[in-house]
Amino acid sequence: MKENELVEILRGCAARKLPELDGLLGILRTTEGAAPYVFHHCEELAGLVLSPRYPLGGIVRVLQARYPKARLGVVVRACDLRGLVELAKRGQVAPDRLYLLAVACTPEEAQHCRCQRPVPNPTGWPQVEVLGSPAAAAEAHPLLVQNERLGLAERWAFWRQEFAKCIKCYGCRNICPECFCQACALEDPLWVERGILAPPFPTFHLVRAMHMASRCVGCRQCELSCPAHIPLTVLYELLRRDVAEMFGYQAGEDLSAQPPLSLSLTEETTPLPNP
Amino acid sequence: MDYRNILTVCPYCGAGCGLYLQMLDGEMVGVLPAKEHPVSQGKLCIKGWNAAAFLRHPDRLPRPLIRQGERFQEASWEEALRLVAEQFRRISSRYGPEALGFLASAKCTNEENYLMQKLARAGFKTNNVDHCARLCHAPTVAGLAAAFGSGAMTNSTPEFSQHTRCFLITGSNTTEGHPLIASHILKAKQQGAKLIVIDPRQVQIGRLADIYLCPQPGTDVAWLNGLMYVIITEGLADQQFIQTRTEGFDQLWEVVQQYPPDRVAQITGIPAAQLQTAARMYAQNKPAAIIYAMGITQHTTGTDNVKCIANLAMLTGNLGIAGAGVNPLRGQNNVQGACDMGALPNVYPAYQPVSAPEVKAKLEAAWQVEGLPEQIGLTVVEMIHAAGQGNLRAMYIMAENPLLSDPDIHDARQCLEQLEFLVVQDIFLSETAQLADVVLPGAAWAEKDGTFTATDRRIQRVRKALPPPGEAKADWEIICLLAQRLGLRGFDFAGPAQIMEEVARLAPSYGGVSYERLDREGFLQWPVPSPDHPGTPYLHKEKFTRGLGRFLPVHFQEAAELPDEEYPFILTTGRSIFQFHTGTMTRRSPKLEQEAPEPYIEIHPEDASRLGLKMPGKVRVISRRGQIELTTRFTEQIRPGVVFIPFHYAEAAANALTQAALDPVAKIPEYKVCAVRVEPIGQS
Ligand code: SF4
Ligand code: SF4
Ligand code: SF4
Questions:
Q1: Do B204 and A62 touch (CB under 8 A)?
Q2: Which residues on neighbouring strands pair with residue A128, listed in sequence order?
Q3: Which domain holds residue B585?
Q4: CATH code at B16?
Q5: I need a labelling partner for B579 at 20 to 30 A (CA). Which of B121, B146, B556, B625 fits?
Q6: Phi and psi at residue B115, in whole multiples of 5°?
Q7: pLDDT tier at B174 (50, 70, 90 boundaries)?
Q8: Would you say B226 and B261 are in contact if contact means Cβ atoms under 8 Å apart?
Q9: Tens digits of residue pLDDT in B94-152
């Protein structure tokens, strides 16, 4: 299915659903540009679009914190849905008041993102409607394949070189829907010496990578926000594979599955209150 | 539940990144990068991400202040504006219009800068109007205007990742100073473009380069001439371009032939072989872009440096094509726009000279005034000196902090204290505002509508997301209110859109700009002479603004102050990515301040061990003009004999050490070279 046909179907579903909701979070396109927006009226839906993608999970968190009782609709892609699943497990969003319109990505989009899981899989999510036709998983990122062939020392050298470009914008963290801690280890001088450019290797980047190990849902928002064009999701995908192998855990796949690293570190993982 | 996003432009550097302000029920809840923005493409640097952090800082000024002896008293707008109007009137009629000075601002919108120069010229008949561009890129404007006929960045940021095959970066700490422009360079590098960095400090971009050369500070003319020597003697010059599009090549060769690599090596410390490799790389990979910033301009030879850069680009035919050119990176979000709007002592909007009779007649008719001044006004540094000598009696400073940014700040303070009357319009009580008689509280970037012009001549809309705190007002509104109180005509604007209509009528290169177009098209790059003109991504296609490009040969001259026995180090100043300019905004943004809260000095470990310094430790740095205390940072990324201090910190202001020696043409102070001594404190 082409993206424009899909958008038409989506607008139809949204129009049907909107009267039952207190608002629908999606992307609004106006003459000035396209950005996240909470729709309230059916007339506005002519501006509802699917791209560009923005990290909606983080916005849901802010909206639910302000309006805990509201019935909120959200237009999601497969990765947004996975992101909401992980946020729900950590007490950051309340699934029972979120109605999801989940859109499957087209094969071209899946290929563009190198996405392994382009179809929304809402296992356990209370209210969700899936639109669009399933696309196959894309081929893996060539750098991922290459990294798997490299020896340890070469891998180290590869990432050292990549991270030498980092300008410490914190964009990878700021945009990540799964990064919600109020006190971030990346800003803690105990872990990362402050005020240095590029930030010290490997602490800055590997601290973040480790913290993402069972949370990252591969939405690519971090990589797309990186001014230094560092292939961050390749690194996080490598970690995701390790977590899958070691614990049999896939982030974002099943609302009832418990994240393994949270279970083994009980003190660390008491869910933080909403901001 | 009213959640929406407002598209606007980052208020920090001249890259002009697009960002969204996330608004929930009228309150700002965060920043999002604008994914479809042509420059930032969904990315931001740490300053952009934190651009909203200072907006609701408790230090924001909510109400006008009037000085009562040693203290300030809050006042109503009525009282404050009445006082300003009376004093400016009185001083102007008693001492003449030359006794007044106006500083516009690279932080304010185009519309506000336009009004400021209109107030000075139409209201008070003086050309004493300037802003801090003087302190950054006046040599660029002077040098490039002489060579090409236009002083602006020739090409566009997005071209760097689309077309450029070789970069020559000098005097620009690009990843820290203009991070999102660096992003395009890094992208190009990933795609195979070559990267040459020539800088006394091996800044991050230098560590990522294919070739890094480390000259002695203040020797730029020598190595630039050396590059040209190699290119000409090895037959790598673009003969066709030289013959068809330029003049003055023979005179260039007469000078350049005196700079063979061996001699250049003696002057600059760059080994001859490295200079040759760099020259070949630049000449053989076309399109090649030269990118520079204050490391080139802030010298007594700033204009000469810029001329050499223009010569080098013309020599290789790297002008008038996408992805090439001479690309000065402007430091502030709207320094380009402030210049375009005529906030300069010698030109009206769009660089129309104040001395040209036909321009004067046109503006007199448009503004409905008579007797616009033809004499060129004073520059910012000259204004401050004139204040010290009693020739300038009153100043109106909008959102600038010359007390921290100007060279030799002890002297600047004494001069400003001599003024009979000083008005400062700002969002915080800056160091300069503390000296004022009246302080007028302005609105910050997210609290008003307007336009900024980014370094690549990109005019973009900034949009109001929030009201200003308390009774603070947008700067354009304050100027209009004051002008009305002065009884001046032509200041009754309904809003910035209407001011831009007037600009478009009077500034030929902005002729096609309107808010309606900007909202629809996102940006316009000047020259955009008419409503149906698409704008100009790169200048000098097929023909230079002045017709033929002109080679302007220059000889090497030593810096004004060189190290000696008493002051053995060369001090150079610059930026940190985490802070901005005089820090009035960044130092009130917690996530930025925490990264680099303390002033520091970078020094080579060899020098440090010779002096017995420790890290971390404290040192005193002394020049002929002053002394400051700082924390040490040892780094091998600087030449022995050279030290570096970022200029953002009031408690250890680097400009207490620098000197006011000026470039004779552009009158820019030499910030990048002065002689200092370094002494340990409290170490045994
Ligand atoms: S892909 Fe990046 S932004 Fe998305 S969840 Fe993983 S780490 Fe976060
Ligand atoms: S987004 Fe890229 S440049 Fe920014 S902190 Fe992350 S890795 Fe570094
Ligand atoms: S690069 Fe410049 S314009 Fe872009 S976010 Fe950073 S400071 Fe703002």
A1: no
A2: A100
A3: 569-681
A4: 2.20.25.90
A5: B625
A6: -65, -35
A7: very high
A8: yes
A9: 999 999 999 999 999 999 999 999 999 999 999 999 998 766 677 888 899 999 998 89
Residue-wise pLDDT for B625-654, tens only, equals: 888 888 888 988 888 899 988 877 666 676
Asked whether residue B274 is assigned to any structural domain, the reply reads yes
Q: Is residue B593 part of a domain?
A: yes
Q: Is the pLDDT of residue A275 over 80?
A: no
Q: Which tens digits make up the pLDDT trace of A10-57?
A: 999 999 999 999 999 999 999 889 999 999 999 999 999 999 999 999
Nearest to A228 among B2, B49, B183 (CB): B183
Residue B339 lies in a domain: no
Determine the distance in angstroms separating the CA of B530 from the nearest CA of chain A, rounded to an integer.
21
Ligand sitting nearest the alpha carbon of A159: 2
Task: Report the residue of A22, A27, A32 to disrupt the B interface, i.e. the one with the largest count of B CBs within 10 Å.
Answer: A32
B469 and B580 within one domain: no
Cβ burial of B156 (10 Å; 0-12, 13-18, 19+) is buried
B576, closest residue in chain A (CA to CA) = A195
What is the pLDDT, as a whole number, of residue B580?
66
Residue A36 tokens read as 């996240």
ipTM confidence score = 0.92
- Measured in angstroms, the CA of A73 and the nearest CA of chain B are apart by 12
Burial of B526-543, coded b for 16+ CB within 10 Å and e otherwise, reads: bbbbeeeeebbbbbbeee
Alpha carbon distance B149, B546 (integer Å)? 4
Nearest protein CA to atom 6 of ligand 2, as residue: A172
B307 and B419 belong to one structural domain: no
CA A59 to chain centre: 12
Distance B182 CA to ligand 2 centre (A): 13
Cβ of residue A41 closer than 8 Å to a chain B Cβ: no
Q: What is the pTM of this model?
A: 0.92
Optimal mutation site among B1, B176, B195, interface A, most CBs of chain A within 10 A? B1
Q: Is A163 helix (H, G, I), strand (E, B) or coil?
A: helix
Q: What is the pLDDT of residue B684?
A: 41
Which pLDDT belongs to residue A135? 85
Of B571, B496, B483, the residue nearest B218 (C-alpha)? B571
Contacts of B180 in chain A (CB under 8 A): 227
Q: How many domains does chain B contain in total? A: 4
